[in-house]
Amino acid sequence: MFDSNRRKYPRANYPCQLTMWLDRGADETILANTSNIGLGGLCVYLNQKILVGMKVDIQLHFTNPTTPFRCKGIVRRCKQEGEKYYNVGIEFEPLGELKYAFLDGKVSELIELEQKGQS
Predict the structure, then answer these.
(1) Which of 57, 54, 11 is nearest to 34 (CA)?
(2) Helix spans in the chain (H)
(3) Cβ atoms within 10 Å of 84's Cβ, excluding its own
(4) pTM here?
(5) Coil, strand, or helix at residue 15?
(6) Is residue 37 a contact partner of residue 107, using CB atoms and an 8 Å limit?
(7) Nearest to residue 14, comparing CAs of 36, 31, 33?
(8) How many CA atoms lie less than 13 Å away from 82 in the CB half-sphere?
(9) Which of 17, 89, 101, 114 sits between 20 and 30 A of 72, alpha carbons compared?
(10) Phi, psi of 108 (to 5 degrees)
């Protein structure tokens, strides 16, 4: 089970745009912003509940580079927060070597920028 207190990968608090396609038979597209992202997955706040275990296709829109990053994931957590929002944790399915290297570099860059902003 996903335990948010014991993360294997560091996360960057980075609100990038996200497009997500749900695997519900008929394609359903969700546009949102991430709360944080790491090599293992991401957190996003949505205005709808998504079933834990659901597979999703993800496209992240970083500002640099402008080419979207696409991957697949599995919903591991969907917890209601307040009246309207759900905190959704998505674990990435295994990434190929190139995608892993790209995401590793991007997350490291974002964490470094975040740490510079705090000092």
Answers:
(1) 11
(2) 97-118
(3) 10
(4) 0.84
(5) coil
(6) yes
(7) 36
(8) 8
(9) 114
(10) -60, -45
